[in-house]
Design a protein that fits this description.
196 residues, alpha+beta, Lipocalin, 8-stranded antiparallel beta barrel, 25% helix
Length: 196
C-alpha cells in the first residue's frame, strides 16, 4: 500500500514538474525591445521618443510586468531629455513607470516558430503615482531560439491628465516657449522575450 502511494506521489510530482516546464517564465531582451511615444507640439508637429532602459518578464501564470526607467527617456535632444526628466516625469520622485498585464500562457506554449496569435489584453499602467486600467490588442509572434515578440497592433492613446501630468506639460511649454503640447500621447511597444 505504501509503495503504491509513493508511486502515485512520484507520478503526480513528475506531472507537475513537466507542466511547469511547459509554461516556463520569459525574460525581456532589452537590447531588442522598445517602447515609443509621440509628442505633438504646435498643434501639428509630431516627434517620436523612446526609453533606453526597460526590463520585464512573463511569469509561469502569464503575468507580464514591464518596468521603464524614466530617466532613460530619449528624445534625441539632450536638453529636452533633461526637461522631460525634471519638469514632466519628475524622476527624483517617480523614477519608474510600470506595465502589468496578463497573457494566455497555454496559447503561448503552443506557438511554433513563425506562427502568431492576437490577444486583447487588460493592461495596468502605473506612472507618476497613478495607476490606470487600459485595453490593448497585442500580436505575439514566435521566433527561433525560444523567443517571442509581443507588439501592440494599434497605438495606446494615453491621456496625460489621468496621470496628473498637465502641470508638467505646462512647465515644458513655458521653458520651450511653445503655444501647445498635446495631452493625448500615442504609445507603441515592440518587446522581445526569451524563454528561461
Amino acid at each position: 500500500m505504501k509503495i503504491s502511494n509513493t508511486i502515485k506521489l512520484l507520478v503526480l510530482s513528475a506531472l507537475l514538474l513537466s507542466a511547469n516546464s511547459v509554461y516556463a517564465a520569459w525574460q525581456l531582451e532589452p537590447e531588442q525591445s522598445q517602447i515609443n511615444f509621440v509628442s505633438v507640439k504646435k498643434a501639428s508637429v509630431g516627434e517620436v521618443h523612446s526609453f533606453k532602459e526597460i526590463t520585464g518578464h512573463i511569469d509561469d501564470a502569464g503575468k507580464a510586468t514591464v518596468q521603464i526607467a524614466l530617466d532613460s527617456v530619449e528624445t534625441l535632444i539632450p536638453v529636452r531629455n533633461e526637461r522631460m526628466r525634471t519638469l514632466l516625469f519628475e524622476t527624483a520622485n517617480f523614477p519608474h513607470a510600470q506595465l502589468n498585464a496578463g497573457v494566455d500562457v497555454k496559447a503561448l506554449a503552443q506557438l511554433q516558430p513563425g506562427t502568431a496569435l492576437t490577444q486583447e489584453v487588460n493592461v495596468e499602467l502605473s506612472l507618476h503615482g497613478k495607476t490606470v486600467a487600459l485595453k490593448t490588442l497585442l500580436q505575439i509572434v514566435a521566433l527561433q531560439d525560444d523567443k517571442i515578440v509581443v507588439a501592440t497592433l494599434k497605438p495606446i492613446i494615453l491621456n496625460l491628465a489621468d496621470f496628473d501630468l498637465p502641470a508638467g506639460v505646462e512647465r515644458l511649454k513655458e521653458v520651450a516657449q511653445l503655444p501647445s503640447i498635446s495631452l493625448a500621447v500615442p504609445v507603441t511597444a515592440h518587446l522581445v522575450f526569451v524563454k528561461q
